[in-house]
Amino acid sequence: MARKRIRIEEEDATSQAGWLFADSFLALMVIFLATISFVPALTSGVVMGSGSVGKIAGSNYIKGLVLTYDTFDAAAIEKDIKTFITNEKLSPLSEVMYARIVSGFSANENEDTGKMRAIGISVAIKKSKISYFENATLDLSASDKLKPESFVLRLTLAPKGAN
């Protein structure tokens, strides 16, 4: 008599392979995020210039600079940047990599008026040909915490050619 074959059912783990990959990837991401910090170190910053805005300017990245002015004066801006570079012992070839221009506006004006003033300041910076701003990326903003005639320059400095 022919012997009846009994079919043995084998386990198939291929359906679990995707979950194994996902769990392994998740574990690696947790380890990566635990060992790497994405938050830049912040300092209290250095506030210079002739403006009177107090603590409004905020804090900087390391080796950043906040300049405050009540009127545009290219020579004063250039002198303040040079003084900062000397005091912080940065490379004499340092330049502004990023500049945020924040201009003020009054309560009876809107934010666009302040941004238009910031545009005017950026044009004045480019026209004055301040060497530190030769390759700078400019960002424009406005704040009602500043007087309409005041502006703040938040600068990030880097060695020439680093950006």
Task: Report what the structure shows.
By secondary structure, the chain is of the alpha/beta class. It has one domain (42-159): 60s Ribosomal Protein L30, Chain: A, CATH 3.30.1330. It contains three helices and seven strands. It has helices at residues 17-35, 74-87, 111-128; strands at 42-43, 47-48, 60-61, 64-69, 94-104, 137-143, 151-159. A five-stranded mixed sheet has the order 2-4-7-5-6. Strands 1-3 form a two-stranded antiparallel sheet. Strand 5 (94-104), helix 3 and strand 6 (137-143) form a beta-alpha-beta unit. Residues 40-44 and 53-62 have low confidence and may be disordered.
Based on CA atoms alone, the radius of gyration comes out at: 28 Å
Q: What is the oligomeric state here? A: single chain
The SSE order reads HEEEEHEHEE
CATH architecture: 2-Layer Sandwich
Indicate the overall shape. elongated
**Total DSSP helices:** 3
Question: Based on DSSP secondary structure assignment, what is the total number of beta strands?
Answer: 7
Ends: how far apart?
86 Å
Could you write a compact summary of the structure shown?
By secondary structure, the chain is α/β, with parallel strands linked by helices. The protein is built from three helices and seven strands, in the order αββββαβαββ. The strands form two sheets. Strands 2-4-7-5-6 form a five-stranded mixed β-sheet. A two-stranded antiparallel sheet has the order 1-3.
What is the topology?
Elements lengths: L16 H19 L6 E2 L3 E2 L11 E2 L2 E6 L4 H14 L6 E11 L6 H18 L8 E7 L7 E9 L4
Parallel strand pairs: 2-4, 5-6
Antiparallel strand pairs: 1-3, 4-7, 5-7
